[in-house]
Amino acid sequence: LDGVTGVQTCALPIFLSVQDIAVRYGKTDVLANISFDVAEGDYIGIAGPNGSGKTTLMKAILGLLPLQAGTIVHAAGMATGIGGHIGYLPQKAFSTDRHFPAEVREIVAMGRLAGKRGLRLLNRADREAVDTILEKLNLSDLRNRRIGNLSGGQQQRVLLARALVGNPTALLLDEPTSALDPK
Ligand code: ADP
User: Fold this and answer.
1) Residue 9: its pLDDT value, please?
2) 43 lines ligand 1 (CB under 6 A)
């Protein structure tokens, strides 16, 4: 995380504790000696140059990348794994293929499936949650459109809806406003 500045306000209790972690791709160290705590209610921004490791840090927190060193500890009671409780908005648009066969409502519904075990079926509450979040983010008119046919900003709003629809206890947003209009 060369050149990255972190801004952090802290009030107990701790929600997430990152202790001295290291992450590498192949032989390249991307993160080393990274430690910080996140308290409930914290809102943290990480700013830094392209390629400095911000996305890598988020993926490490989500458990998507192995740690070379250190630990990431999350609040008690989250035994099913932190991934199911964090809403994640990836930086990259979902698909650049116009014909990718998924509609907006299906993409958003994936955010409800993430926390389910066993047979992953949508129930009525899931469908209502999808409808509610589509409406909130002004996406109702696009609900049956293919994701690949939408603009970058529209796709980003769909992914934001997917991150929010599962009522996550935390949100990880990777450059969330890059393609969005100011409003
Ligand atoms: P940021 O989000 O700050 O722009 P990233 O975390 O995406 O930075 O990337 C950090 C570094 O790791 C960059 O040098 C990038 O090229 C490298 N990197 C990212 N993903 C991979 C990968 N899957 N394999 C190898 N190197 C990667």
Assistant:
1) 55
2) no
Whole-number Å distance between alpha carbons of 151 and 60: 29
Q: Which of 40, 46, 80, 49 is nearest to 63 (CA)?
A: 80
Quote the strand ranges of the chain, DSSP E. Answer: 5-7, 14-25, 28-39, 45-47, 69-74, 86-89, 170-173
Contact 159, 90 (CB under 8 A): yes
Confidence of residue 117 (pLDDT cuts 50, 70, 90): confident
Beta strand pairing status for 5-7 and 45-47? antiparallel
Q: Which of 78, 80, 81, 70 is nearest to 18 (CA)?
A: 70
Across-strand partners of 146? 103
- Reported as a single tens digit per residue, the pLDDT across 50-107 is 999 999 999 999 889 999 999 998 875 454 444 447 888 988 766 667 788 899 999 9
CB 104 within 8 A of CB 142: yes
Q: Structure pTM? A: 0.82
Residue 21 in 3-state DSSP? strand
CA 25 to centroid of ligand 1, rounded, Å: 8
Q: How far is the CA of 137 from the centre of ligand 1 (A)?
A: 30
Q: φ and ψ at 158, to 5 degrees? A: -65, -45
C-beta 140 within 6 A of ligand 1: no
